[in-house]
Amino acid sequence: MKIALSIGHSPQDGGAVSTDGKWSEYGFWREHVVRVKEELERLGHVAVVCNRTDAGGTTPSFAAKACNATGADLAVEFHFNSAGSGATGTETLCFPGSKNGARAAELIQTAMCDVLRLPDRGVKGVTDTGRGYMYFKKTVMPAVMVEPAFAGSNVTDYDRLKERVAELCVAVARAIDKYFKEG
Questions:
Q1: Which residue from 3, 158, 169 is spatially nearest to 76, judged by alpha carbons?
Q2: 96: Cβ–Cβ under 8 A, 6 or more apart, which residues?
Q3: I need a labelling partner for 132 at 20 to 30 A (CA). Which of 7, 65, 68, 174 fits?
Q4: Dihedral (CA of 84, 87, 135, 35) sign
């Protein structure tokens, strides 16, 4: 199967910055998403790393356009959260009503929680006023958006993400593989 792995915002277009100021979510995932790609390919899938700027813009609509251009069977966009310093945990977003998107989100969420051992904030359906709505509305395949940690506002979450990112990438890839194997 073919998977589009897209990367979240840069600071210039509203993306979070790590608590130590060293990484934007875009920079962080640009560095690490290759591990997801490599594991997916080792498992027999085709994985394409793309970004919203590949489609000529910076908004979630352009992320969807970039994913759609790959002809993928599943799209996964990588982010990290930012909020008040007390916010913590792992969550995965999907489009309400997408049975396949919800199933992929559940598998990925479980995998991320198993690795990071942060509070499970669950799988969340996105409303028409919610985060990433246009990404989900405009993708032509099942899609999920991962928010493994509050790395932009919680030092503990960020440290855990940094320490376990290699293991996390492999776990996400294996959850995607499981999604396709289960049909």
A1: 3
A2: 125, 126, 127
A3: 174
A4: positive
In tens, the pLDDT along 42-101 reads 999 999 999 888 778 888 888 999 999 999 999 999 999 888 778 999 999 999 889 999
Task: Please give the C-alpha separations between residue 147 and each of 16, 42, 43, 132, in angstroms, as whole numbers.
Answer: 11, 24, 24, 12
Does the predicted model carry a pTM greater than 0.90?
yes
pLDDT tens digit sequence for 12-26:
666 778 888 888 888
d(CA 107, CA 131): 21
